[in-house]
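User: quick one, sequence for these tokens?
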């Protein structure tokens, strides 16, 4: 009788479109090592999941999920069926995830945690921090998104650590370009300064500050134009700027749209949280203009202050001035963590975790 190959089960709150190329590559990498990948996510999706969910794939598996209120907080629990001795389970490093707690109590299963590790984008809760430090000591391996997160895991006493260097697919920059809206195309042809916003239009990105900066620029007679590639509830904040002809909405941005943006804009502007857009900016050779008080995800550490990262004071006039200055900068060539490297590091860490657990 042949021994079934081990399966690594990765639990996600949902699978966003930008993660699909990573999981496709990871499934292929692990298959070559005799390991099967299954990515589980709750169905129906959790309330906080965004709308940019990836289509089903051979490695994905929706499962029924339960939501439980514990001490006034909502925690979630997905099905654990199918997990066998010799498998591996990887869950998010999150104190409110019952999946993570249940995985850490399993025997004869390799147990991994992955994520930011640190509390970057919100003020940390002392209880959560203490629980997550305990979780990292209990896990067989911590998969940290960045080197900063890996350093935090070491200080917490994690047994083994893999730094995956979180990234996204930027191969679209080598592909076809989409046609820009007429107003944006005209602005580009006239040589007017252009900047772009990429990402979800939500409160974390401080579109209120962008809208106020555009009012300042309008009052100064500036001809700067902004390409906004994304969707979300805060898009309404930009309506006055759209009416003034300062903004072109591009909707949810696929690769050809982003490639056209990279060719035409002088800089990206993200007044609020910077996350994986840092990778895209580096690949595009365009700096990101942000504000000095924003809470960024750990990927912002990929950027170099003064070069690929321009931090303005968090007021409309300062942001407006920084946008205008950055829009005139020449395109650069910068190194960035690539998706292939992330796949390889994650895959090697999983194989090492399985081998360690089997000893």
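Assistant:
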């Amino acid at each position: 009788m042949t021994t079934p190959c081990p399966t690594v089960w990765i639990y996600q709150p949902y699978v966003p479109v930008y993660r699909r190329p990573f999981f496709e590559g990871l499934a292929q990498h692990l298959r070559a090592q005799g390991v099967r990948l299954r990515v589980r996510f709750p169905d129906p999706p959790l309330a906080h999941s965004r709308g940019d969910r990836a289509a089903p794939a051979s490695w994905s598996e929706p499962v029924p999920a339960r939501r439980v209120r514990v001490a006034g907080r909502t925690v979630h629990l997905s099905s654990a069926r199918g997990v066998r001795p010799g498998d591996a389970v990887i869950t998010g490093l999150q104190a409110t995830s019952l999946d993570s707690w249940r995985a850490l109590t399993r025997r004869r299963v390799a147990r991994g945690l992955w994520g930011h590790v640190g509390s970057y984008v919100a003020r940390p809760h002392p209880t959560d921090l203490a629980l997550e430090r305990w979780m990292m000591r209990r896990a067989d391996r911590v998969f940290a998104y960045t080197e900063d997160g890996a350093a935090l895991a070491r200080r917490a006493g994690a047994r083994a650590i893999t730094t995956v260097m979180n990234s996204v697919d930027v191969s679209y920059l080598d592909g076809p370009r989409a046609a820009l809206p007429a107003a944006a195309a005209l602005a580009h042809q006239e040589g007017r300064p252009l900047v772009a916003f990429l990402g979800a239009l939500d409160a974390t990105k401080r579109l209120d500050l962008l809208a106020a900066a555009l009012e300042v620029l309008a009052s100064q007679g500036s001809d700067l134009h902004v390409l906004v590639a994304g969707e979300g509830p805060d898009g309404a904040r930009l309506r006055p700027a759209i009416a003034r002809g300062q903004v072109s909405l591009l909707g949810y941005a696929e690769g050809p749209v982003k490639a056209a943006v990279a060719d035409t804009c002088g800089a990206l502007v993200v007044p609020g949280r910077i996350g994986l857009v840092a990778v895209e900016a580096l690949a595009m050779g365009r700096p990101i203009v942000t504000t000095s008080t924003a809470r960024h995800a750990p990927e912002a550490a990929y950027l170099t202050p003064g070069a690929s990262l321009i931090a303005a004071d968090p007021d409309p006039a300062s942001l407006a001035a920084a946008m205008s200055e950055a829009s005139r900068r020449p395109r650069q060539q910068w190194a960035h963590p690539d998706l292939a490297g992330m796949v390889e590091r994650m895959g090697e860490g999983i194989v090492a975790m399985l081998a360690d657990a089997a000893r």
